[in-house]
């Protein structure tokens, strides 16, 4: 049988990137992919060469949110070509490897590690200023693999919702990031209140302030709150990131999203 080389120090992937930012949450469905997509878009809109790497292997939704779920990854020579969304935004998603968009991926740990290494080193990313990594919810192997294989990992942004139980999960994510010896770049409270589609006022649906409380408790930065907005969900379903608005359009959610993404 083949000997595993677990004792070898992991080799950093050959990728040119100045800052790698991980996006993490304690549990699923809190808006981690939404934040990843909008953060990547915001960075590219500021003129930074940006990559978005979707490692949510078991539930990749980035493809759908960017309207590219029908595309498949291509290789030229021995390089994987990322999908170009704009001149300064390139995307790689697990979903773009699947044959059917709804088939689940059953991968064992070592396969995931190999895939993650390839998604860093074998992709034609070019020179990146930022690589935003959408990780699966919880505290799994993917985050550990990224920290092992990626250079210049700056830290993690943690997305949570205001409910107590989600906040409890997110505190686990904060501790996990600290265990990996990485800084928590900040906590974002998503689905914080709801924008009434009739009057535009913000209604406190699940309560408020849980994210800020968790951030204070663990002495990490609090980046701000994004309300529940039907337009935000529609933007995700339609494959057009919320942050890309029509000229002149304003809303309380855009103000909130702009503030967080700054
Ligand atoms: P996760 O990546 O944490 O599983 P997603 O980003 O996929 O979560 O979000 C789950 C669902 O909630 C998606 O349909 C998304 O469009 C929607 N959603 C996320 N944030 C908001 C928000 N602030 N307002 C309305 N819908 C949202």
Automatic annotation (TrEMBL):
This is Iron-sulfur cluster carrier protein. HAMAP family: Mrp_NBP35 (MF_02040). The keyword Membrane does not apply. One of its GO terms (cellular component) is cytosol. Homodimer. Belongs to the Mrp/NBP35 ATP-binding proteins family. One of its GO terms (biological process) is iron-sulfur cluster assembly. One of its GO terms (molecular function) is metal ion binding. Keywords: ATP-binding, Hydrolase, Iron, Iron-sulfur, Metal-binding, Nucleotide-binding. InterPro entries: Mrp-like_CS, Mrp/NBP35_ATP-bd, P-loop_NTPase, YlxH/NBP35. It comes from Methanocorpusculum labreanum (strain ATCC 43576 / DSM 4855 / Z). ATP binds at residues 26-33. The keyword Manganese does not apply. It comes from the Archaea. Binds and transfers iron-sulfur (Fe-S) clusters to target apoproteins. Can hydrolyze ATP.
């Amino acid at each position: 049988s083949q000997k595993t080389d677990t004792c070898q120090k992991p080799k950093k992937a050959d990728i040119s990137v100045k800052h790698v930012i991980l996006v993490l949450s304690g549990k699923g469905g809190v808006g981690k992919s939404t934040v990843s997509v909008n953060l990547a878009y915001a960075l590219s809109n500021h003129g930074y060469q940006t990559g978005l790497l979707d490692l949510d292997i078991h539930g990749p939704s980035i493809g759908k949110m960017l309207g590219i779920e029908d595309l498949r990854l291509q290789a030229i020579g021995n390089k994987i070509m990322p999908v170009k969304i704009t001149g300064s935004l390139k995307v790689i998603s697990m979903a773009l490897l699947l044959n059917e968009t709804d088939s689940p991926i059953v991968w064992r740990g070592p396969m995931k590690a190999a895939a993650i290494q390839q998604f860093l080193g074998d992709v034609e990313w070019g020179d990146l200023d930022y690589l935003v990594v959408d990780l699966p919810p919880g505290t799994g192997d993917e985050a550990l693999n990224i920290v092992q294989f990626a250079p210049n990992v700056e830290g993690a942004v943690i997305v949570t919702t205001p409910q107590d139980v989600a906040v409890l999960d997110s505190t686990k994510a904060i501790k996990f990031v600290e265990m990996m010896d990485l800084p928590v770049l900040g906590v974002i409270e998503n689905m914080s209140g709801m924008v009434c589609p009739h009057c535009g006022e913000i209604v406190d649906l699940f309560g408020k302030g849980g994210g800020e409380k968790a951030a204070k408790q663990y002495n990490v930065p609090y980046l701000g709150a994004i309300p529940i907005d039907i337009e935000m969900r529609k933007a995700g379903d339609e494959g057009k990131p919320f942050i890309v608005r029509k000229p002149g359009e304003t809303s309380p959610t855009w103000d909130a999203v702009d503030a967080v993404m700054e």
